[in-house]
Amino acid sequence: MAKYLLKRILYMILTLFVVATATFFLMKLMPGSPYANEAKMTPTQLKIMNEQYGLNKPVWLQYLIYIGGMLHGNFGTSFQYSNQPVSSLIASRLGASCQLGLQALILGVVLGVIIGAIAAMRQGTWVDSTATVFAIIGKSVPNFVLAVLLQYYIGLKLGWFPIAGWGQFSETILPTIALAVGPLAETARFIRTSMVDTLSSDYIELGKAKGLSRIEVIRKHAMRNSVIPLVTLIGPYAVALMTGSMVIENIFNIPGIGEQFVKSILTNDYPTIMGITMVYCIGLVIVLLITDIVYGLIDPRIRLAGNED
Amino acid sequence: MKFTRVLAAGATVLASAVALAACGSSSSSNSSSLAKQTINWEESAEIPTMDLSKATDVTSFNQLNNVMEGLYRLGKDSKVEPGLATKTTVSKDGKTWIFTLRKNAKWSNGDPVTAKDFVYSWRRTINPKTASQYAYLFEGIHNATKISAGKASVNSLGIKAEGNYKLVVTLDKRIPYFKLLMGFPLFFPQQEKAVEKYGSKYGTASKYMVYDGPFKQTGWTGSNLSWSLKKNPDYWDKKHVKLNTINYSVQKTPSTAYNLYQAGKIDAVALDASETKNLKNQKGFTLRPGASTFYLQYNEAKNKNLKNANLRRAISLAINRKAVTSALGGANKPASSLTAAGLTKVEGQDFATKAKDTQYSKYDPAEAKKLYKKALKELGVKSISLTILSDDTDAGEKTTETLQSEIEENLKGIKISVQNLPFKTRLSRSTSGNFDIVVSGWGADFADPISFDDLFTTNNPNNNGKWKNSEYDKLIAASKTTSNNEERYNDLVKAEKILLKDQGITPLYYQTTAWLIRPNIKGVIYNPAGANYNFKEAYVSSSK
C-alpha cells in the first residue's frame, strides 16, 4: 500500500509539472498584454511596462523564473488586482466556491441516489417514468435558467430566501439548489440503470429466496454494488463543483473563484491563470487518488496494488 | 440531443418571460434611509486597486473621486469647483501654475494635507518603477515624458512645493484642459508616510489607505463584492456632505440587480437591453452618456481600395445607424461625430452637435450606390471584398451582423465578411494593422474633445487605419498652442469636419447606458468622462 501510494504521488507531481509547463507556454501564445489600459498605451509605454514586469525576457526564461517562484510557494502578483498576491486572491475566493460546491454535491448525490433507487425498484411504473422525466429536465435545463427562476419566484416574490449575496447560510440555499440539480439528475439516472442491472442478477434472487425482506436485499446487496460506479462520477463532479461556476456566482453575487478564472484568461492575467490552474489540477489529482482508494475499500475485488499477489 | 435543445430553449423563453413579468411591479425604499441618509449603490465590477497611481478602471476612479480630493472637484457638466486649491494663478504663457492650498484640509490620520503630498504623489505616478498605466496623461508637464521613459530623474518633474501650502507646476507647453486634469484622481495627492507605512499593501484594502475626501471607505478587503463609504469627519467641507453611508455592491447580472432594486435592497441599477426597453417610462429612469464613441477604421495602409474616399463614404452612407443601435438594444445613440455626444458643452451647445457631419455620416442608400459606382470606376475594379473585424462580445457580433447586411444590401456586388475575436486578440490585430475594417471604440479620459481628435493625427499610435491629412494635423497642432478658447474649439470643429468629410473614420454610435435610480435620491453628480460619480452633495430627500 505504501509503495503504491508513493508511486501515485510521484506520478501526481509529474502530472502537475506537465500541466504547469503546458499551461505556461499555451498562455504565452495568447495575443495582447496583461494591462487593463492597453488600448490607450503607446508602444513605448508598453515597452516600459514590459520591462518593469519582466515580460520582455524570453519566454523560456520567464518560465524558469515562474517555476522557480512556484517551488518556493510564490505564485506571483495579480495584474487585475494591483499588488495583490495571487495566493491571497485565491484564498479569499476559493472558500465560497468550495462551500457552495460541497453543499450542492451532497444535496445532489444524496437525493439522486434515493430517487434513482426508488425508480429502479418501481421499474416500469408511473414513479419510474416521473423520475426519468425529471432527470431529463434536470439534465437539459441549464442551471442558470433555474437560478433565475428560483431567484425571481422564491427570492423576490415569496421572499423565503435572500435574492443574492454571500455571508449567511440562508443566502447559500438558492444557489445550492440551482447547482445541485445537474448532479442530482445524473446520479438518479446512473443509479437507476445500474440498480436495474443489479436487481436482475442471480445473487439478488438468492437473497430473496433466502427470505430476506425487500428493503434488506436493496440495502445489503443491491445498493453496495450499484454505488461503486458512482464513485467514478463523484470525483470529477466534486472538483468541477468546488472550483466554482462563473454563471451561478454572477447571478447570486457570490465571491467565488470560477469567475476570477475566466476573467484572468480574458485579461491575460498570467500569474492568476497559472495559480488557479494549479489549484484546479491539484484538486483533481488528489480527488482521483482518493477515488481509487475508496474503490478498494467498498469493493474488495479491486486491489490497489495488483502485482503484490 | 434535439429534445434536450428544445427543452433548453423552452426554459430560456420561460426565463425571459419571468424577467419581463418582473418589470411590472416595484416597491419603494423605506423611510429609514431618509433619516439615516444612506443609499445603496451598484458597481459593475470589483475594485482592482485604491492606489491612485495604479488605477485604470471606472470602479477605482469612482471610489477615489469620493474618498480623495485634489486641487479641484468636478461638478455638474464637468465644471471645475474648488477642492484643496483656494487660489490659482497662471502665467501669461500658460506654462506656470501656482496653486495656494487651504490650510484646513486633513488626512484621515489627522495630518494636514500639504503641497508636498502633491509633489510626492505625482513623482510616484510618473516613476517608471510604479508602472502606472495612465502616466501618459502627464504629458506636457515639464519632463514628464522623459521621466516615464526612464531618461530623466523623477525629481526633475515640473512640480515643486514652496512651503506647505504653495504648489508650483511648470509645463513644457500650454495644456488647455489642465484644470480638468486636476479634477481627475490621477492628479490627487498621496501621503508619503502612509504609502511607506503600508508598503506593498498600500491601496489593496480599505484599511491600508488614508483619505482626504468627503468619505472614507470601509469593508473592502481586496477582491470582495461589497463595501461602504462613510462620511469623513475630518473633511474640510463636511458641512456640505449630507450622506452618512453609501453601501456598494458589485452586480454582474442585470436581472439580479433589478430584482434587488424591486425588493428595496439597492437604490440604483444599470439596465440591460430588454430592461431598458421595458422600463423606459418608469420613474427614476435615467440615461447616462458614456463619453464613448464606436466607429469604423479603414486600413488604408494595407488595403488599396480603402484609400478611396468615395468607397469609404459609400460604406458610411449605406449604414442605417438606427438599425445598429436597435440591434444592440439599450440606450445607445446613432453617431454623426467622432467626439461623443454629451462629453462637453461649448457656449451652451454640445460640442458633438457643433462638430456633427450631415453630409456623409448618415443613412442615404441612393447616394451610397452612386458613390460606390464612382469608387469602382476610380479604382478600376468590378467588385470589392472586405472583412469587418470586431469583438466576440454580444454587442460586437450584433454590430458586425447588422453592418454586413446593411452594406451588402445597399451596395450591390460588395462582399462583406465578418470576423469576431476576443478583445485582446482584436486589439492586437488593430494595432498591428492586420484588418480591413475594424469596429473600434474610444472613451475619453477627460471632458475635452481633444481626447478624441488627437487620435487621428498622422503618427498617433491609435490611428490604426493610418488615415492622413496634413490640414487636420495642422489644426490639431494649432488648437494646442492657442490661448484663445474660442479659436481652439473652432480648430477642433474644423478638424473633425475634415476627418468626417473624408470618412477617415465612420462614426457608428455613442455608448449610453440606462439606469433606474430611486427618485428620492438627489444631488448625485454624474460626468461622462473620467471619474463618473461625485456624491459629495448627494442626499436622500423626503419628496420623490
From TrEMBL, chain A:
<feature type="transmembrane region" description="Helical">
    <location>
        <begin position="133"/>
        <end position="154"/>
    </location>
</feature>
<dbReference type="InterPro" id="IPR035906">
    <property type="entry name" value="MetI-like_sf"/>
</dbReference>
<comment type="similarity">
    <text>Belongs to the binding-protein-dependent transport system permease family.</text>
</comment>
<keyword id="KW-1003">Cell membrane</keyword>
<dbReference type="Pfam" id="PF00528">
    <property type="entry name" value="BPD_transp_1"/>
</dbReference>
<dbReference type="GO" id="GO:0005886">
    <property type="term" value="C:plasma membrane"/>
</dbReference>
<keyword id="KW-1133">Transmembrane helix</keyword>
<dbReference type="InterPro" id="IPR045621">
    <property type="entry name" value="BPD_transp_1_N"/>
</dbReference>
<feature type="transmembrane region" description="Helical">
    <location>
        <begin position="100"/>
        <end position="121"/>
    </location>
</feature>
<keyword id="KW-0812">Transmembrane</keyword>
<feature type="domain" description="ABC transmembrane type-1">
    <location>
        <begin position="94"/>
        <end position="295"/>
    </location>
</feature>
<feature type="transmembrane region" description="Helical">
    <location>
        <begin position="60"/>
        <end position="79"/>
    </location>
</feature>
<feature type="transmembrane region" description="Helical">
    <location>
        <begin position="272"/>
        <end position="298"/>
    </location>
</feature>
<feature type="transmembrane region" description="Helical">
    <location>
        <begin position="227"/>
        <end position="252"/>
    </location>
</feature>
<dbReference type="GO" id="GO:0055085">
    <property type="term" value="P:transmembrane transport"/>
</dbReference>
<protein>
    <submittedName>
        <fullName>ABC transporter, permease protein</fullName>
    </submittedName>
</protein>
<dbReference type="InterPro" id="IPR000515">
    <property type="entry name" value="MetI-like"/>
</dbReference>
<feature type="transmembrane region" description="Helical">
    <location>
        <begin position="9"/>
        <end position="27"/>
    </location>
</feature>
<keyword id="KW-0813">Transport</keyword>
<keyword id="KW-0472">Membrane</keyword>
<dbReference type="Pfam" id="PF19300">
    <property type="entry name" value="BPD_transp_1_N"/>
</dbReference>
UniProtKB/TrEMBL annotation, chain B:
<protein>
    <submittedName>
        <fullName>ABC transporter, substrate-binding protein, family 5</fullName>
    </submittedName>
</protein>
<dbReference type="InterPro" id="IPR023765">
    <property type="entry name" value="SBP_5_CS"/>
</dbReference>
<dbReference type="GO" id="GO:0043190">
    <property type="term" value="C:ATP-binding cassette (ABC) transporter complex"/>
</dbReference>
<dbReference type="Pfam" id="PF00496">
    <property type="entry name" value="SBP_bac_5"/>
</dbReference>
<comment type="similarity">
    <text>Belongs to the bacterial solute-binding protein 5 family.</text>
</comment>
<dbReference type="InterPro" id="IPR030678">
    <property type="entry name" value="Peptide/Ni-bd"/>
</dbReference>
<feature type="signal peptide">
    <location>
        <begin position="1"/>
        <end position="21"/>
    </location>
</feature>
<keyword id="KW-0813">Transport</keyword>
<dbReference type="GO" id="GO:0030288">
    <property type="term" value="C:outer membrane-bounded periplasmic space"/>
</dbReference>
<keyword id="KW-0653">Protein transport</keyword>
<dbReference type="GO" id="GO:0015833">
    <property type="term" value="P:peptide transport"/>
</dbReference>
<dbReference type="GO" id="GO:1904680">
    <property type="term" value="F:peptide transmembrane transporter activity"/>
</dbReference>
<feature type="domain" description="Solute-binding protein family 5">
    <location>
        <begin position="79"/>
        <end position="463"/>
    </location>
</feature>
<dbReference type="InterPro" id="IPR039424">
    <property type="entry name" value="SBP_5"/>
</dbReference>
<keyword id="KW-0571">Peptide transport</keyword>
<dbReference type="InterPro" id="IPR000914">
    <property type="entry name" value="SBP_5_dom"/>
</dbReference>
<keyword id="KW-0732">Signal</keyword>
